[in-house]
Amino acid sequence: MSPRRAPREPSGPRAHGGALGSRGRGGARVGVPPGTGLWRLAWRRLARSRVALAFGGLFVAVVVLCLLAPVYAHDVAHTGPDENHITEIVHVGGKTEEVVSPTGVPIGPTWHSRFFLGADANGRDVAVRLLYGGRNSLEIGALATLITMLLAVAIGTAAGYFRGLTDGVLSRLLDVVWAFPPVLLGVAFGVALAVGGLHLGVVTLSSGSLLLPAAIIGVVAVPYVARPLRGQVLSLREREFVDAARVQGRGHLRILAEEILPNLTSTIVVFVPLILANAILFEAALSYLGVGVQDPAPSWGTMLAEGIRLTPGAIHLVLAPGLMLVVAVLGVNVFGDGLRDALDPRACGAAVGRSLMRLPAETSLPAEAPWPAAEAP
Length: 377
Known about the structure:
By secondary structure, the protein is mainly α. It has a domain of 253 residues: MetI-like fold (Orthogonal Bundle), CATH 1.10.3720.10. Helices cover 55% and strands 5% of the residues. The chain is built from twelve helices and six strands. The strands form three sheets. Strands 1-2 form a two-stranded antiparallel ribbon. The relative contact order is 0.13.
């Protein structure tokens, strides 16, 4: 009778967390209780990343401030985002100053309730417009991210799973969009739709609607998410658990819903903050160029465009929206990097300067922003 062999330690990504665990002396796993799931391990790793959580909290603070814009305008500043005060005067430090001087230079920051960050050339409160503009910029960024992820997941999974003619048609459509620089393509769409809006059957978007720039940004960003998802689905469809599902007689839609999409969840989650940050910056670039948010609706991009014309006489018109834009985008990007490292620890040592568009198609998690970031205006 042969001696009984010691049981082999389980291997693979599901064994004690797989690559998510760590080994101590003698090869024993430490710090990872048996049965701990992927998402719980990811949360523990993210909770240890204080920098990512700090910048994520910074972005949340910006969002909360922008959501409280009506409260600030009504109870603190006592003015709206479109109210002009060109002929009014204010008392600052015991002195009387005009909101807009006869030469057209607006007042700078007063650090009081009225005109806390100064006024613009039309006598409008910069702080009020900054918060309302942030609401518009964040709303467009969120809607664009939602549009991008819905279209990219649908196109990427269909192209990667069905292959053949479906993959050929969808991939060529993505290549057409990919062939144009994002900002140039966004400007072209914005100019074409600036006058008549968008009319697609029962869907009608007027030229002044915030949904129009959101739709433009969302469509332009689709290839930069759909192509990596397609590459991952091409690999997943050949795995044993998918073959087992086919043997059991499951249909294509059920396999996609129960086998493929759950394995794309971590990739999709990581893509969301990266797309959101780029969408906010992209909206600012389009609005700065005059094809995004249209006057009189404020946004950080339109405020930058207005402030450039009065620089350096009214530098606060550029600094206020510029700093808010930097803080919001930086907060989302740093949090997204921490989230990526938490979900895929093998990518922790990846070079930050590597571009996703130069990664192989099978890459699971993006190492950085998924499309060439629009330069800040």
